[in-house]
## 1
Amino acid sequence: MKYILFSLFVLLSVFSLFSCQDDDDTTCTESTWYEDADGDGLGNPAVSQLDCDQPTGYVANDSDSDDTGGDATDPTDSGSANSVDPSLFLTDGTDFTVTLVDCTLSDGTTTKCYEIVTNGMPTDHNMGPWCPDNIADGADAGGIWLEGGEVYDVDGAFIENMATFYNDDKWLMYDANGDIYTTETQDDCANAANPDVGVAYENFCVECLPSYLGDLTSTYTIPMTPVLADSPTQFGGGGRGGSNGPSNRGIAFNGVVFDAPAPTDAILGAYTLAPFDDAGGHINLNAGYHYHAATGVSTEIEQSDGHAPMIGYAMDGYGLYAQLDADGNEPTDLDECRGHTDEIRGYHYHADKPGSNNFINCLAGAYAN
Ligand SMILES: [Zn+2]
Ligand SMILES: [Zn+2]
């Protein structure tokens, strides 16, 4: 098999050599080239391009397990401080890919970006559960809810006590047997998520299942090397000054997006509850599975100096880290975006506390247009 692959490769190389020498020939044969960011002659299997000619910085080899010129888990290695390390993403080459593309950033910088295409299904943890079945159910049967900066287990008792919790007698989300009214179908999920649907879905626990999503994919583009902007960009979409900036905050290593705050006022205003699972995620039919809280369930890259673990990248390519360090402390010098700089990691962000329904407040770096 190895010999066949090698022969195929030689054949392809020879073929593309000939076909590309002739500029009039538009039928050149593309082959796959892998990024060799650290220049060791070994390519990164996670980052590839199709091209007739060998692109600069790319090789045919795809066997480099660490293409950063260093180890991203080793904070004493400055080689990985600032550029995005695509090998940290849990890509599978099919449902989750990372590809280097040309891009222009919001400040006009022409550069390279990583285009992340994913079905948004985490491979490092289960999704759900969200809604418990009965008010006698324990915390294992449900997810969480975020209120007033706190994380609450959505167990049977939480549902039973909602009228008291929200000081509003209109909350009654269960029948005489204690069974909780929960969305049962994709139509239910679509209707209950619409705040204009009216009374039909009042007092429903909204639970949209992965099976409703089909082959939905999402594409995100982040700068390969972050560029600090002159001034921070407020997030766009859903308030915050109507900025043109992205509304997504960042991407977890499993390809799940760190989303804008959940519109909990609208959800509660329609007398529905759309819990998050213990990972801080839930599903809507347009966005797929997405996070509203960093609860420490998705893949984390531990930092050997006791700094908070890394949980992904913000949309400007800067690293996104958990809220708390190994001693349980939040940094005290965070800027308005929730970022700060240290010698090991350069500029980076720390996610807001899980109960805040928030990750970061703005983007300090330029984002891909
Ligand atoms: Zn949501
Ligand atoms: Zn930090």
## 2
Amino acid sequence: MLAELRRVGYEIKDLRKDEFRADRGVPVSEMEEKGWSLWYASLPDIRHGKCKSCGSVISVAGVRFHGHKCEICGEVTYYDLVDGSTMKFVFLNNRERNFLSPKLKMRVKRWDVEQEDIYFYYEFLEGGLSVVTGNQATAYLNENKRLWQVIEEDGQKLLKVRYSLYWDRDTAAIEAYDSYGHYWNHSIVKIWDGKEYGELDHLPIPESMNIFETWHWSPLQATPYLHERILSAAGQVSDKGYYYQDGRSFFMASEWKEMAKFVRHFTVLNGDRFDDAWPKFRSSGPGGIDDLAHFCHGNPVVENRPNIGNILVAASKLIEGKPLTESEITEAVRGVESEEGVDLIRGFLGKKR
Ligand SMILES: [Zn+2]
């Protein structure tokens, strides 16, 4: 099979020789029995850039880097920041920060990459919980006086800040959180077998695959933990605490269908019965996992670890004045009581353990 895959064009990595695993002393027999991937096959070099100015297929390397030029026609393929882009940032002032520390959101006038300066229009935009405006923004600027200048240009007030194309925490004045309004003059395409596909299109064959030797462990018996194996085979987390707790949909048909393939071929469960059952499973993370677990075993053991993410979701909903569901309250309280939760809250209060 590996020879066949190579013939088609796949590059194959022998994971049994992978240094990462050898270092930890995991023998190949253990990898086989635990159902780890033993080879990884992928199609090399299928991604390319495509210049919007000349239409040429170009190298994908650097194509999404500020000021990069098309190697065929010389036009710029991408600018990260142009006149009108917005950027959310903090000053790097060696003070401790958390996710509620002040940030500024400003509109970019221009970025002089040669002088390593960025110029913002002197106005403070709204941008969510931690983004400061008005007097708070002015106070934040004053706290960081040595890191910026205000200049006048064509009668316009601009904030000038040092900002290099090759950002380096040790020398930078600001750190960007996000930015919007990029200039795109390219697309990414995939080329396979002489045919061009969009960046997100599916090729007629998988771009990559993991290869297992299922005869070492299949068919899997119906144990209280079988659902964990099925979820992980479909790339899903089996801990209910990981998911949103407000009942919102998570599992879609595509995920259940992946799991159905695994159930049919590699477990003792009845594949036809599973195909009938999953459309009635709840689609929320915790509900779906419970339904799957009960399909697999009469008395399943389902993992539900407190998750500090649940505290943050609950806290931000409360701050925004949104109602919480019963299970969100339960999970947030469980999270607060966990070791990670205690650490998080100590962090907010500035107290070390
Ligand atoms: Zn071009």
